[in-house]
Amino acid sequence: MKITGAEIYLAKIDGRSPVILKVETSENISGLGEAALAYGSGASAVSQLIAEFCERFLIGKDPFRIEEIWSELYDHTFWAKGGGPIVFAAISAIEQTLWDIKARALGVPVYELLGGKFRDDVRVYGNGWSFRAQTPVEMARAAEKAVASGYDALKLYPLGKPIPNHPNGIFTHVSRREYERADRNRAVAMVRAVREAVGPDVDIMVDMSAELTTDAIIQVGRALEEFDLLFFEEPVDPTNVPALKKVADKLDVSIAVGERLYSRYGFRAVLEQQAAAILQPDIGNTGGLMETKKIAAMAEVYSMRIAPHVCAGPVASAVALHLDACIPNFLIQELYPFRVPEHYALVDDPVEPKVRNGRVAIPTRPGYGVDLVPERVAPYLFHRVTASA
Known about the structure:
The chain contains twelve helices and 15 strands.
């Protein structure tokens, strides 16, 4: 079997831009992968880079030789060593497609190639439900609605400020580290409103998006400790590991970090200094499925748990479930279930509508368990790579 072509889709839908890769082979078996840059900036850049990587490193290769191809990408793209989200998101999307191809060729789900399942279903938490809430009252109502839709764990951004009338819901982050007591009071009021609305049995997580200085985030964190948080996410710049450790030492809450760390090498300092309790690698930007499994194994040695980050499209959600199935130190999986229907319609069997009572079953179809819907993705074709390209 040889790789014969690839299609890159850039699906700009209502404020999000999922980047989905389909790789084709000489045996008419194809595989899917997704880069993790549907949110924020970089989707167009990674789409172009995926095309370049496919042309230079993928066409004509044996898709079963996954680790070898990953090593070629890591060693010979040059910029991967010390690289950031664009390079590693491109590598991640490519690597994911190879596992899908191999599993489909063998007629098994991907998790069977990674040691098999620890669990048949996984706990998930809902994100994106809070993006339009301007006040504590609106936040409480949004939380109640999210719980009613089937979630018993929710994440919010108490320092964020929604942008009115955005199609998919979005908010501004704190910029220039500007922070006043009023910001802390507002953050506390938002979290208090959620806790009072959902009661003691729903888990709450807060994402601080590395927006404040170390001293300021410690102040906010101490004010939020009373709400029994499952974790306190990205309190400071994740590359500033001493600051992360300082926050962890000062607060009585589990620190989570990882969506902006890339490859096992990027996680090393956090592990060695035990600067967090929970790691959040994103399969779509940290190097792919096996790279994330290696990070999980490293975390297990340091008694840390894994809560994989996902903020991309429906392929990314399906891929994440196969990691969740086969690591022992799994905690909870992030999902964005409140986007427009067109977002999930890109695939034939999306994960998000299947959540029941805060859990979702691991797919059992070969590969990742999802296929693209041709008529849905066709308008978003960004580039096609062929053997003659």
